[in-house]
Write a structure and sequence with these properties.
The protein has 15 helices and 16 strands. The protein is of the alpha+beta class. A hairpin with a 5-residue loop joins strand 15 and strand 16. The protein is elongated. Histidyl-adenosine monophosphate binds next to strand 6, strand 10, strand 11 and helix 11.
Length: about 425
């Protein structure tokens, strides 16, 4: 009987372990690869920051800040928060290290865990993973479209099809001010409870993402921001649409899109997957004109996105997307004698140094046990190595998917396995 009770992960966190972790890795690496191809460079930031950063950056009227932050006091009595999103931290770092005084735009990518104390459900976790990018210091429609294209290329690279891109413009600060005035007048006609009125006072746009039916139906009659854009905001937004069309990135304009964070201005977008149920947003982002200066930096604009890696994993699974052949174990060796155990290790090391991914059945196993291990590992090929194989220098290479066997010389094993993998990926 076990002495101790086993422990469980905290409620609502996402975890990935073999073999499903391979698809998580595939998704994350594809997203990062797309950002790198467009010249974005790594920014590795702390997962906890001064609480003030998110209050000022993300906004106190948002659910994320007012209800969902993991905030605690550290041993020095400082208020610390586990990062609920990545943009505010990137801005803090750019300002702190004077990157805004160098070459513009500053283009960075990041990847890691984020934390929001939300009610857990399928696709909504308290610890989740994002890959994000930010392009800071240039306010051109061209860079807006570059950012959107990084996401679109990443999704296409994963093989996803069942999703759409929605875009809108939240206008520049001037358009926003004009609109907010109208919106406040409209909101004043509603009969709101004290808490809701307080939220609306801080940011009236927040009422658009209120989940209650009565608020939703009242807000359906509210004026729409897209209709209040000044000339330059409208021109910018039209150019974004033109360029998306040039790049053959399909989109729809969603006039009523509201992003859950307060810093957005101008171009905003969301990628929505249609096979995920309620948590359908696989990625989203937009431009943020006032954020840098609000955090004590220069008056620079920026744009970026965060893509939910967990939701992309679910989307790949929903669309039955198979892992590419570059993922997973190529060859699993099953040694059948003490001499073969040493020889297998030597052979595996040689093949690994040539770039194959190789594993071995460790311990003393029967042929059946060894093959079961090969099967469980998800390897593409297996090879049984006994005293006979060692003395003849030939062995049977088994294709684990088809069951076909091929007699190969051990000396040619690397070339044969490579060739077989290439043939299989083309068939
Ligand atoms: P966001 O829309 O809050 O934006 O999050 C981006 C993505 O993260 C969402 O589309 C979703 O896929 C994923 N996500 C968010 N919350 C959860 C959760 N609880 N569980 C699982 N996945 C989740 C931002 O975070 C902005 N910082 C994006 C950005 C960058 N805007 C400009 N630059």
């Amino acid at each position: 009987m076990a002495k101790f009770q086993p422990l469980q992960a905290p409620k609502g966190v996402s975890e990935y372990y073999p073999v499903r972790s391979a698809i998580f890795e595939f998704v994350r690496e594809s997203l990062i690869g797309s950002a790198k191809s467009s010249g974005y460079q790594l920014m590795e930031l702390p997962v906890f920051e001064d609480t003030e950063l998110f209050k000022r950056g993300v906004g106190e009227s948002t659910d994320v800040v007012s209800k969902e932050m993991y905030t605690f006091e550290d041993r020095g009595g400082r208020s610390i928060t586990l990062r609920p999103e990545g943009t505010a931290g990137v801005m803090r770092s750019v300002i702190e290290h004077n990157l805004d005084r160098g070459q513009l735009p500053v283009k960075v990518w990041y990847s890691g865990a984020f934390f929001r104390a939300e009610r857990p459900q399928a696709g909504r976790y308290r610890q989740f993973y994002q890959v994000g990018i930010e392009a800071i210091g240039v306010n051109d429609p061209e860079i807006d479209v570059e950012v959107i294209a990084v996401a679109a290329r990443a999704f296409a690279g994963l093989g996803l099809k069942n999703y759409t891109l929605e875009i809108t413009s939240l206008g520049d600060l001037e358009s926003r001010e004009r609109y907010t005035k109208e919106l406040r007048t409209f909101i004043a006609t509603l009969n709101l409870d004290e808490e809701t009125a307080r939220r609306a006072e801080i940011n009236p746009l927040r009422l658009f993402d209120d989940k209650r039916d009565e608020i939703k139906s009242a807000m359906a009659k509210a004026p729409v921001l897209l209709e209040y854009l000044n000339e330059s905001s409208l021109k910018h937004f039209e150019r974004v649409q033109e360029l998306l069309t040039v790049l053959a990135i399909p989109f729809t304009v969603n006039k009523r899109m509201v992003r859950g964070l307060d810093y957005y201005t101008g171009t905003a977008f969301e990628f929505v997957h249609h096979g995920l149920g309620a948590q359908s947003g696989i990625g989203g982002g937009g431009r943020y004109d006032g954020l840098m200066s609000q955090l004590g930096g220069a008056e620079l604009s920026g744009i970026g996105f965060g893509i939910g890696v967990d939701r992309c994993v679910l989307a790949c699974e929903a669309e039955g997307i198979a892992l590419p052949s570059s993922f997973g174990i190529d060859l699993f060796i099953v040694p059948m004698s003490p001499a073969a155990k040493g020889a297998s290790l030597e052979l595996a090391e040689r093949l690994r140094s040539l770039g194959l991914i190789v594993d071995i059945a460790y311990g003393d196993r029967s042929l059946k046990g060894g093959m079961k291990a090969a099967d469980k590992s998800g390897a593409k090929y297996s090879l049984v190595l006994g005293d006979d194989e060692l003395s003849t220098g030939t062995a049977a290479l088994k294709n684990m998917k088809t069951g076909d066997q091929l007699s190969v010389t051990i000396a040619s094993l690397h070339d044969v396995v490579r060739q077989e993998i290439t043939n299989a990926s083309h068939s």
